[in-house]
Amino acid sequence: MAEPLITLKQVDVEFKEKTRSVHAVDHVDLTVERGDIYGIVGYSGAGKSTLVRTINLLQRPTSGTVSVLGQDMLKLDAAKLRQERRRIGMIFQHFNLMNSRTIADNVAFPLKGTKVTETTADGKKIWRKIKKSEINQKVSDLLELVGLADRATAYPNELSGGQKQRVGIARALASDPEILISDEATSALDPKTTSSILDLLAHLNQKLGLTIVLITHEMEAVKQICNKVAVMDEGRIIERGTLLQIFAQPHEQLTKDFIDTTIQIESAIAAVRKQPAVRDLQAPDQLVRLTYVGASTDQPLVATLFKTYNVTANILFGDIQILQGTPFGNLLVVLSGTQADLDRAFDYLQQSDVTVQHLSANQEGEQA
Ligand SMILES: Nc1ncnc2c1ncn2[C@@H]1O[C@H](COP(=O)(O)OP(=O)(O)OP(=O)(O)O)[C@@H](O)[C@H]1O
C-alpha cells in the first residue's frame, strides 16, 4: 500500500518586498509516497527551492498545510520541529561543507551531542548522549556507504566536486533520515559525475528505503532515477505523473521541451531536414516524428505500416532509451503512400499509442 510521507495542500509562498511581491509558490498540492524518487523539474525561478524548503519549514508557507511523516509541521513547537527535521536530510548544489574540518568531522557534525536510546539491564529504555566511539563507527559506515572510506582525514578542498557531494550525502544521512531532499545537488557537476551521484541516490533509495525529492532543471537527471515527476512553472505545478506517463503523453509545451532536451530532437530534426529524402519530399509523403513508450518497437511498426497499409517508412533518425525498464522511442520518419493509405496508417499509429507529430520538410510552416 502506498504510504504518503509528504502531503502539501494548497501551499502558497509570497515574498513581500518594499516595492513588489513575488508569488514564489502558488497554491501547490503535492503528495510524495514512501519509496518514491520524486523529481520536480523547472527552470530557474520556477519556485522549486522555495517549494521543497516548505517541507522541512526552512521556508514557512504563507498559507496551506504541510504534513510530513504523519506530523502537521506547522503545529510543532521549536523543539519538536528540530527533532522532525532530523528525519528529513538535505543536500545542496554547493555542498555547504566546512572547509576547515576533515571529511570525517563534516559527517560527524550533525551527530555531536545527539541522544540515543539504550535498554538497561532491568529492561528500562533510557536516553543517553551518543559516545565518541559510536560517532566514529557511524561516520566510517557512512563514508563506506558513499564510497569515500579512504578519504576520512582529507579536507573538502582536496576533493573533487563529486566527492564533495558524496560527503554532503553522508552528512545528510547521519541522522538516519527517512526523506532526503536534493536541491540541485548535481547542477555543479559534469555529466559523468552527475550520473554517478544519481546512481548513488538510486542505490540509497533501494538499500535504505530512502524517499527522495529531487529538484533539478535537468530532465536527464529525472529520467535517470525518478519514478514520478512534477513540472513547475511560475510557482505552480503544471503537470505531474509517473515518469512513464509524463514521457508517453506530455500535455504542456514546457514538459515537451524538457523531454526533448533528453533526446536532442531539435538538432536531429535540423539534420534530417538537410537529407535528400526530406529536401525532395513530394506530397502526400510526409516527415513525421513518432514517439512511443512501451512494447512497440520500430520493427513491427514499420513492417505493419508496409504490409497492412502500403506505407513505406524511411527511418532517418532513431533514439530508443530505456525508462524504468520500458522502451521510450523517438523516430524521425518519412512516410510514403497514397493519401488514403497514409490516413489509415495514422489511425493505426494512434490506436497503437504512437504519438504522431507532423513536421514540415523545412523550418517554416511547422504543423501541430
Ligand atoms: N527569500 C526570498 N525573498 C524574495 N524573493 C525570493 C526569495 N527566495 C526566492 N525568491 C523568489 O522566488 C522565486 C522562486 O525562487 P526559487 O529559488 O524557489 O526558484 P527555483 O525554481 O528554485 O530556481 P533556482 O533554481 O534558480 O533557485 C524567484 O522569483 C525568486 O527570486
Automatic annotation (TrEMBL):
Gene3D superfamilies: 3.30.70.260, P-loop containing nucleotide triphosphate hydrolases. CDD domains: ABC_MetN_methionine_transporter (cd03258). Keywords: Amino-acid transport, ATP-binding, Cell membrane, Membrane, Nucleotide-binding, Translocase, Transport. GO terms for molecular function: ATP binding. The keyword NAD does not apply. Pfam families: ABC_tran, NIL. InterPro entries: AAA+_ATPase, ABC_transporter-like_ATP-bd, ABC_transporter-like_CS, ACT-like_dom_sf, MetN_ABC, MetN_ABC_transporter-like, NIL_domain, P-loop_NTPase. Residues 8-259 form the ABC transporter domain. It comes from the Bacteria. This is Methionine ABC transporter ATP-binding protein. It comes from Lacticaseibacillus suilingensis. The lineage of its organism: Bacteria, Bacillati, Bacillota, Bacilli, Lactobacillales.
